[in-house]
Amino acid sequence: MTDRPLARFHNGQLELDRGGVYGPATRLNVRVMLQSFQHKPGHDAARYVRDCRAALTQYDKAMEEAL
Q: Among 22, 45, 53, 63, which one is least packed by beta carbons within 10 Å?
């Protein structure tokens, strides 16, 4: 597994890693992904949760600043 984030906020939009290529995602997509991995064991699941939370935090901060 690479060190690249599995979910990110980049150039004003949320993106999910889709097999090595980032694709656009909505806040709901990232939130559902976070919830689906939140209670699963393992390092990969924990990493997905961490990346999703970081992306959502950055997105929310950007949207708040835009107001």
A: 63
